[in-house]
Amino acid sequence: DRLRRGFSRTSERLNENLTGLVGPGIELDERTLGELEEALIATDLGPAAAARIAARVGEGRYSKTLDEAGLRAIVADEIAKILRPVAKPLEITAFPRPHVVLVVGVNGSGKTTTIAKLAHLFTEQDYSVMLAAGDTFRAAAIAQLQTWGDRAGVPVVSGKEGADAAGLVFDAHQRARAEGVDVLIVDTAGRLQNKQGLMDELAKVKRVLGKLDAAAPHDVVLVLDATVGQNAFSQIEAFRETAGVTGLVMTKLDGTARGGVLVAAAERYGLPIHAVGVGETMTDLRPFDADELARAIAG
Ligand code: GDP
């Protein structure tokens, strides 16, 4: 299926790295276990997961029955243990409505596309959705969100390039409340180069939302591009600090060999992971299913 295909490059990379490390006639001595651990680290799974997998292989070393399929089963099992606690779909719970989802992330991470995917997902679940084009810094971002809104069949509240983002979000929230909209998804600027400016803007947007509804934003979702590998960690740290991230969506897991970074991020930060992006269209968002993902990664 789509998810397995999406993860095929990650699982291929993993299997390339693991080939020949276990099997008949191979002694699982300390050196081999060390090589196994290094091979796992090289697949972006993170050192902690790699160490645990190697330790489990080491425990079973006298049974001498471990082949590559057996190793993959151990890998899948350990990955699933890490992913299960963070698997958490976005839920629309706010009362009064709207439930506000603030979406943050660096430019190019797939933020706009993910907003469209979420709009589609919530519409399918029979919620009414409105988008707010809060990245007022880039005219292209406003136009792009409008295009996606049209495709998803949901209204987009937008202003002129350079308009005050917090003011726009204020207007959008008032409109959403007046119209009884269930979910308001707010796009934000992603200029991490201007960290102070971004921090101030996000803080202001959050302040304005908080004035309209003390519980808003109900979710602050960080969109991460899996292809950046370990650089995802510095983005998580930056946005956790500036925006108070409450959960993650990882994109571009199709066509990257670095899908293991999802596991490393889960292990390291314990933040909920809501969904994963596996393509460029509106329907290419997969709910985060720990066991299914673990199997897709382990191949
Ligand atoms: P933004 O600048 O963060 O808003 O990023 P965009 O949503 O414009 O996405 C940047 C590029 O990444 C576009 O070409 C998207 O089609 C592409 N993209 C976004 N999500 C995915 C995904 O899950 N898979 C793939 N293959 N491409 C994606």
Automatic annotation (TrEMBL):
**Entry EC number(s):** 3.6.5.4
Question: InterPro entries from the xrefs?
Answer: AAA+_ATPase, P-loop_NTPase, Signal_recog_particl_SRP54_hlx, SR_rcpt_FtsY, SRP/SRP_N, SRP54_GTPase_dom, SRP54_N_sf
From what superkingdom does this record's organism come? Bacteria
Biological process according to GO: SRP-dependent cotranslational protein targeting to membrane
Q: How does it sit in the membrane?
A: Peripheral membrane protein
Q: GO CC terms for this protein?
A: cytoplasm; plasma membrane
Regions crossing the membrane: none
Q: Where in the cell is it found?
A: Cell inner membrane; Cell membrane; Cytoplasm
Which parts of the sequence bind GTP? 105-112, 187-191, 251-254
The cross-references to SUPFAM superfamilies, in alphabetical order and at most eight, read: Domain of the SRP/SRP receptor G-proteins, P-loop containing nucleoside triphosphate hydrolases
Q: What is this protein called?
A: Signal recognition particle receptor FtsY
Q: Which organism is it from?
A: Tardibacter chloracetimidivorans
Question: What gene name is listed for this protein?
Answer: ftsY
